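Exam review. A common question shows you a sequence with its structure tokens and asks you to describe the fold in words. Practice with the pair below. Do the first one on your own.
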Amino acid sequence: IAAAVDAWNRGAAALPKPWRPQKPVLPVEGMRNVLITSALPYVNNVPHLGNIIGCVLSADTFARYCRLRNWNTLYVCGTDEYGTATETKAVEEGLTPREICDKYNAIHADIYRWFDISFDYFGRTTTPCQTTIAQDIFQRLLARGFLLQDMVEQLRCEGCQQFLADRFVEGTCPFCSYEEARGDQCDKCGKLINAVELKNPQCKLCKGVPVVKPTQHLFLDLPKLEERLEPWLEQSWAKGDWTANARYITRSWLRDGLKPRCITRDLKWGTPVPLDGFRDKVFYVWFDAPIGYLSITANYTDQWERWWKNPQQ
């Protein structure tokens, strides 16, 4: 209180001058450097107040606080644009996935501008930078033996001549017999579903009856990472500020043992897999989308690694 009274009595002239970072904003030696990445909003809808309050506004408030503290701050965000939800929306509106992304990226950017969200850069995940960085991370995983191949049974529509993503299949729920269950979840009983478990499956695109066929996919070999991940987590939990919920969920995954996770999909809309035998596939959106934080920063500045690979600052 005494310090606040003293500052008030000395007046605004005695306050430190506000920090004006150069453009682009890059880490500065000797300063506190803060990188803020607001959760990437999905591109296939119009943002509403809940979306904005849920992630964008809270990050914006923190970014403004950091700047008031004269911390060197970069705040980036962008639309998450790959995945089956985009393809589904494109079919609904009679547009291509690219046209859907262009349309809704502009809507998102305009709405955040209207709300005066103080992004230093608002980008998107469907860029050449995203392809370059995602494929580079994939090649590094491959070279270090952290990927494996396995056969997966999937529904294939012979009429559409393609394997069907979960959202392109409907049928009867095997648990509650609801007749309009999706290939990933039943909206009536709420249970998660593997599309091949559906009774009377139907292709949403042509209404044809798909057949079960095996297809080869690539998996992230998470069990191989477990030994190195556990000590890192213990250190991070001790030093970091993890929520109780985040700790609980992570511990439960480790307790049950990590499982290999499929990182490829039989789709057209996505980052291409740069490996012979898999070039007709794309990366699964949850492998691809988090890399969007890096690629959006890379679209902002070609010196993006100074933010992402710079533990000293």
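Now try the second one, then compare your answer with the model answer below.
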Amino acid sequence: PRSFSAAFQDYLRHLGLQDFPCRLGSWDRSCPNARRRPRAEPAGLEEAVPPGEESPEVLLELLRDPHSPWALPPDCSAQDRLLREVAVLAPELLRGSRVFQVFKTLRMVDKGVEELDEGLLQFQKLEELILSANRISRVTSAHLPRTLKVLELCCNAVGDLQDLCVQPPPGLQHLGLGHNRLRGPSQEKHFTVDFWPNLVSLDLSFNSLTDLVGLVSQASTLPSLRILLLKGNPLTLIPTYRGFLVDSLPKLFILDDICIRPEDRLQFHGLAEQPELARSEARVVVSIGEMKGLPDPEAFQQLEVGSEGPAITYSYCVTYEF
């Protein structure tokens, strides 16, 4: 499996931090292997700058000028721009293992990451880790920096949270698991204060969670939870879904991107005491307007009374898969 560490090294190579105009090459005057140039004569005049040893200001302009052949593409991320500029202004910060100390926020989106290995532990100051749109199916908490406050794993293949909940980062405030493969009712048990004492925002949208009562029972133990996303799960088809959640979680501010107003609290007051209304079933009414490719019964000539001809009957079965 493609590890996070391998993807990160590929990412750094793609940025070209070792190439001109970044200052990690031989043109960098702070580099021990850089060519030393003689002082300008006569004394007192400004030191000459031979080719390949441009000033940081000139190198920075080559990165920022949209017409420069070394400029980053317009759609690059702010993280890409920051690293390239750091490589010009303070290249010593990106040499060797010191590069890991630069990151407080790290975005590795759509990089083909399949496994989170121990290399993540080198990011000792990391607070925000965004790994959306990869191929991650398993997250081991032992490989996550303890300093994390935001962990975004949207659009991956996570189907079980047991390894993540062994000893997760204690200060985590946002956990994003939308568009994954979580199935109920086995996963709802992982969303309690025992694992996430400081969680403020939880995104579980577009999974396969089905146990509304069980999920609410666990989430009600989260003392700091204010934002919850559950849309796209089967449990949202339950008629009393929103009302039951609003009344059961009085500290919640936002549910499925919709603010909870005081009048909502009043309207749904008392539903939390009636869990039987939040049963795990839903009624769906489907109206069929037109069907093509089927024989029209009215097109057949009606048999006369007393006719001995055979009667032909057509029946159809329509199946809906959710």
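Model answer, second protein: DSSP finds six helices and eight strands in the chain. Confidence is low (pLDDT under 50) at residues 32-50. Full marks require stating both points clearly.
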